[in-house]
């Protein structure tokens, strides 16, 4: 507010005041409730709630499946972004628009649709079942659901960077004798790497908290295919509010750290891009 | 004599050379395109097709009766009500936050932007949980609410609150970079010419940001109508009363009433497709108006 004197536009106090009021009311105060509730537990109770074998198994599944899903999206998201910016083929515009489907499709709908496809009598499940591969109701199903919901992130962060890439640098590399693979790995890939990493982390962060699309396909067997958000719901249904909140706080802290890392990444990559220009 | 002149020929060969140097061989191109299409078929097109196939598996009459069911209709009504409250509130917040952040300099601005993003980083289940801790029977205001015969959790207000939380950042996130890029010259010019603050907002700023605003509203609405995890925690799943459409899908599915579950799901899938079409139209307009501004 000290700097207000060099800005003549009105409405600073009103707009900032309302922003902070609404942010506190909807987000900050309710989130603080989780931390306050957890502080009512002593350390032993907290540890029992967040580190029992069933909860630890759910962390492993949630983080492991999220990581695999984000890695799959890193590879195929980069490929999709590349194909959509570099090549022309029939139906490209429709496919480009459909990439955002996982953002627009309600997660519960995605969940039952993926289950229908990968169940043993589904379109793909019935092809895999004779080979003894089970997807639905196993951890593989969790990976499938988390890959689906994270799909747009990598494509949409890498695509604009690929579009803005100067053709001259590639031409220069080619005229200096580089083959296509060398040009890609030495010129193009380093330029898109920060965006790729950002998209990967966004997909990973989104997958960790995901609930709706996973619970239908996961089978939800304790110790095997039970994700951490489901643990929170189960504890709530047993009226174990303190236990549910303790697990929630563990997830919140991890999510906040990821958010900070992603913001740091974006700051770093924008600085890198500015330096390149 | 050959049919093409020397200059034409050299142009042609230059084009071939360029495409060889900065593009991939045809077989690589087609291999990459096919791999992409295979991946997208498995993860995008098939789920979408499955929703409609399963919905119509038992015939069109079953489909219609599943949608005309009283509980299905009341779930649609509740979904629309939640979106009708959440979207305008987050819209006003988004404009206010973007105005403060884009037009003024103040300490702690980057912290404020991070805090606005916070709901994206929070699991939807946790978003529901925190309102239970505050308004639930054992929560901060639980006793007071039950003394006054008010219900927030397992009732509509809780559903609306959870919906507001999960859609909180969409409009603000869309508007902040847009308004920062536009600067404040036009608003300052209007001020010099004697316009009041509200006149500037209505006549200058809002027309400038209308495509970004619309884009944010479309995203907010899609998420508001489709939210499952957060709403699931606070709803209590009371059929005909506190069930939104996604929750109704879950109930039908868990009762093995697959045709009805997919019928309601198909309405949500159609909504998603409409969202994608509107989004493409808005993106097209936004790109066009951005080009027009650049040329001026």
Topology of helices and strands:
The complex is a heterodimer of chains A (277) and B (296).
Chain A: H1 12-38, H2 43-51, H3 53-86, H4 92-98, H5 101-104, H6 107-118, H7 125-128, H8 139-164, H9 167-175, H10 180-209, H11 212-218, H12 228-237, H13 241-276
Helix pairs in contact in A: 1-13, 2-13, 3-8, 3-10, 6-8, 6-11, 8-10, 8-11, 9-10, 10-13, 12-13
Chain B: H1 6-22, H2 26-56, H3 60-68, H4 70-103, H5 109-121, H6 124-135, H7 142-147, H8 156-166, H9 170-182, H10 185-192, H11 197-208, H12 210-226, H13 229-235, H14 245-254, H15 258-295
Helix pairs in contact in B: 2-15, 3-15, 4-8, 4-9, 4-12, 4-14, 6-8, 6-13, 8-13, 9-12, 10-11, 12-15, 14-15
Would you identify the CATH architecture of the largest domain in chain A? Orthogonal Bundle
The fraction of residues assigned to DSSP E strands of chain B is under 5%
CATH class of the largest domain in chain B: Mainly Alpha
Strand pairing plus helix content of chain B: what structural class?
mainly alpha
Order of helices and strands of chain A: HHHHHHHHHHHHH
The third-level CATH topology of the largest domain in chain B is: MetI-like fold
Largest interface: A-B, 94 and 103 residues
| Distance from first to last alpha carbon of chain A | 34 Å
Here the CATH topology of the largest domain in chain A equals MetI-like fold
Task: Give the CATH level 1 class of the largest domain in chain A.
Answer: Mainly Alpha
Coarse morphology of chain A: globular
Main β sheet profile of chain A: none
Task: Identify low-pLDDT runs of chain A.
Answer: 1-5
For the report, how would you describe the main beta sheet of chain B? none
Could you give me the name of the CATH homologous superfamily of the largest domain in chain A?
Answer: MetI-like
Mean pLDDT of chain A: 90
Number of domains of chain B: 2
SSE succession of chain B: HHHHHHHHHHHHHHH
